[in-house]
Amino acid sequence: MKRIILAILATLSILIIYSCKDYDFQNPIDPNITPANPNGLQVISFSEDKIKVSWVDNEELPVGTKKVVQFEYGFNGTDFTIAGYDTVENNEAELSTWFHCDTTYTFRISLYYGGNKTGSTSTIKRKLILQPTNLSTVFDSDTTATLTWKDNSTFEKEYEIEVLENGNSVLIKTVPANNITAVIKWNYLIGKTYSFKVRGKSELNNSNYVTVSTSFSMNAPTNLQITNFIESEAVLTWTDNSSNETSFEIERSQDGTNFTTIQTVGSNITTVTIGGPYLITNQYSFRVRTKTNINYSGYSNIVKSTIQFNAPTNLQVTSFTETTIVLSWQDNSSYETGFELEKSENGSTYTLVKTVNANTTTATIDGSFLTTNQYSFKVRAKTNINYSTYSNIVTQNLQFNAPSNLQIASFTETQAVLTWVDNSIFETSFEIEKSDDGTTYSTVKTVGANIKTAAIDGIFNTESFYYFRIIAKSLYNSSSPSNIAVAGFRCGTSTIAYEGTTYGTVKIGTKCWLKENLNVGTIINDNAEQSNNSTIEKYCHGNNEEYCTTYGGLYQWAEAVQYQNGATNTTSPSPAFTGNVKGICPTGWHIPTLTEFETLSAIVGSDGNALKAIGQGAGSGAGTNTSGFSALLAGYRLGSNFFAGLGYGTRFWGSTEHGTTRVNGLYLDIMNSNIIMDDCGKEGGYSIRCLKD
């Protein structure tokens, strides 16, 4: 209604003005002819106080013919009002009046040629746009909002900005023409809605308002996490979802309910270190919120954690003696100040025995450790205010390894020599014990640490048995005894183990003999001669080892005496043999002399059958073996490729020479009971029966 009244008043004023104006309607055309209507109406320019148009004339008039242009406008395209006139000679005309902004006008014109009036042109619409659009708001902070809009006008002189507060619009800022943004200083509170209005102003008009309503908000931080948590600090990180905070407040709780602010950090910071101390017995909760000078955001998520103080693991005993034990473990903490080591002797009650520094992973515990006790150890990490849980428990007995492999290295009527293996690293001595009955032992000698042999002097009956054992000793402990080694010999019951074969023994008179023929050495073919080559060589009937297993080996004399004193099968030893000749016999045994063979013969009454094993010999030569000598008719080697006498006779080498190339021996035959002391060539191959020294 206001616009209609203003339009009517404007029209009346124009009519009054033009009614006083002397328009020239001269040079009329034929009044009975209606002039052709103009067309092609165009707006050349349009402002709030003037419109200029052009058109196309459809009448041919003399040059200089004046015409009057009648302007009309309306608002709905049907109701038109005469707005004014202009007299022109060409096809352009102007109308000065007051046009309202943001209103759509419909224009048309008609022409007067003298007294003749044309019809109207087609209409054309125009609108003066002053109102801005697309108003939006961005809160830079809780005291600053930036408004932006679209400038749709070319003739504004300024923009007015208003804010709606408590139901009233308050003009808060004016900005010059052509601006499309304004910074509005205000105190903006979270959760409150603010409405802003912007309108354009010109010389004659005020546009309609464009309005935007928005609430100030501050996004709370999210994704709060604890990235490191030790007793001296907790490191927190979060996601900053706000662009206008001035700081962040970090709060902590020990009960998950009551929080207190413990630290404030500046804007755009997303990590903080919160100092301790923190106890492993407590659970700590953290949360963070954004703040400005006048506002607080909501809280982030709550993150809860207990300090992680990892216990040592993999506790092991790496060395254990009676005075020290060495322990090692794995350190799984990064902030301990030390480690406490505890010991128990009953597996339940522990006492602190040592404290070591941080980052240490081994410790030596000194003490007096007994083999009769079992010891348990555990370790834990510590700081000034916290203790980790304990490591695994390691339990161990002190191992005091007994000597082993005790052996009789030699044994005579005046001395027994022992050897053993030392299996301990902390003994201080070895005690050697002896028993005459294998049951009751007494200490006979003590030697120092790391000794592995000892000579026991005394008076020993070589026909008796003596039992020895050895015990390692230290400051506080004794090992268990070693194996028992037996020294001594009882002919007839004792056996001799020699080079893989065990031989029985037999006592005949006062002498002790092996009960079997000697079988030692490497078999060679019967067409080869035995030689001095550091290898004991033997012949076997038919070059078959099985015969040697049954009857013993056959040896040439030089091989039998092992070339002692340069002896050969063609030369005598130099110097000549004196005493016992060991030859290829076991240690403590020797090859008999002629005299010893004669003594043997005398003891059995020169009865060869008493020396032969049962089943050996025939007729008057059948063996009775009453002596236990158990002789076999083993035959002999008489030369290259020549074995003979198997089952018919046997000859035993002696050590007594009969000239340079011959040696005395003892011969037994299948058909008679004679014991023949004869001599044979050294190159022959005969049996060996050893006699104990």
Please sum up the structure shown.
Helix content is 6%, strand content 45%. Strands 3, 4, 6, 7 and 8 form a 5-stranded antiparallel β-sheet that branches.
Question: How would you describe this structure in keywords?
Answer:
disordered N terminus; 693 residues; 45% strand
Please outline the helices and strands.
Elements: H1 2-19, E1 39-47, E2 50-56, E3 67-74, E4 80-88, E5 92-96, E6 104-113, E7 116-117, E8 124-127, E9 133-141, E10 144-150, E11 158-165, E12 168-176, E13 181-185, E14 193-201, E15 210-215, E16 222-230, E17 233-239, E18 247-253, E19 260-266, E20 271-275, E21 283-291, E22 296-299, E23 303-306, E24 313-320, E25 324-330, E26 338-344, E27 351-357, E28 362-366, E29 374-382, E30 394-397, E31 404-411, E32 415-421, E33 429-435, E34 442-448, E35 453-457, E36 465-473, E37 485-488, E38 496-498, E39 501-503, E40 505-508, E41 511-514, E42 522-523, E43 537-538, H2 545-551, H3 557-560, E44 589-590, H4 594-603, H5 608-611, E45 634-639, E46 642-646, E47 649-657, E48 662-669, E49 676-681, E50 691-692
Parallel strand pairs: 42-43
Antiparallel strand pairs: 1-2, 2-5, 3-4, 3-6, 6-7, 6-8, 9-10, 10-13, 11-12, 11-14, 14-15, 16-17, 17-20, 18-19, 18-21, 21-22, 21-23, 24-25, 25-28, 26-27, 26-29, 29-30, 31-32, 32-35, 33-34, 33-36, 36-37, 38-39, 40-41, 44-50, 45-46, 47-48, 48-49
